[in-house]
Automatic annotation (TrEMBL):
CDD domains in alphabetical order: GGDEF
Entry annotated with the keyword Transcription regulation: no
An MF annotation (GO) of this entry: diguanylate cyclase activity
4-aspartylphosphate modifications at: D52
Entry keywords, A to Z: Phosphoprotein
Domain of life: Bacteria
Cofactor (UniProt): Mg(2+)
Entries under Gene3D superfamilies matching the protein: 3.30.70.270, 3.40.50.2300
Swiss-Prot/TrEMBL catalytic activity: 2 GTP = 3',3'-c-di-GMP + 2 diphosphate
Stretches assigned to the GGDEF domain: 162-298
Documented EC number(s): 2.7.7.65
GO biological processes: cell adhesion involved in single-species biofilm formation; negative regulation of bacterial-type flagellum-dependent cell motility; phosphorelay signal transduction system
The protein's name in its UniProt record: diguanylate cyclase
Amino acid sequence: MHANILVVEDDDINFLVIHKILSSNYTVERCVSGDDCIKFCESKTPDVILMDVEMPGLDGLETCKVLKNRDVTKDIPVIFVTSHREDHEQTLCWQAGGSDFVIKPVNALTLLHRVGAQVKLQYQYKKLKKMVFVDGLTQVYNRHYLTSELVKRLSYAKRNGTAFSLLMADIDWFKKYNDFYGHLTGDECLKQVAQIIETNHLRGEDAVVRYGGEEFVCIMPQVDKYGLETLTNKLKQRIEEAYISHEGSPFGNITLSIGGVYSNSVSNVDDEKWLQAADEQLYLSKQSGRNCITIKEL
């Protein structure tokens, strides 16, 4: 279990001290400001964040509050590093969403134990979350995750006035595939298709869900019409280039019918309406001969 620790510290000496203590047990990376930390976490999720409280610009407390208000970063434990020993100053750390804190000057043994405790808790949390929210066959998210998360993502997009897209894809003539090749080969096909879809969605905020037997849903925050068109066309191309043989298909290989809906500025947070609208577009793709993409604005 080799965890990644992000140290948010603007002082070079303080960072070097922390790095020396932790680097033999963990991968240690650094940001020098709150804004840099937020940008870093948009593309890469550390296991634990060590956050200096006092920094120029966005301080550690405000940075933590921003992270805790974002779906993709809210579960990252934050350990504050502070020179304040007063109870009310430490209370502010807890109120900002911190999981723990250490006092400067940092004691090596204390830091190792507290980081180790958060790494262990995070590992257990991820294991539990995987059991609840991950499809056992394909290893992408399952429908329970969709039920839990979609409305939260939509609400966040509405609050921030950002774009949002939802994609629904169905493997064409999959029953014929199972009948011809057998269910074990069908399972392997499902796993391969799920992997291709995941590869097409590398952003941390995107989520790929196995919605039904051979149906997949992709949640795509901050993706507008242009982004949705780009991603769906790329997905269609990736599936075609995989050349998964399908004797029961007129195309000769596995293909996808894809339906997508988007909003450049979310106003509707009804998750059922979004899913229904995506399903309607998927139906139109099937009616058009399958191996098609149909999208519309919601």
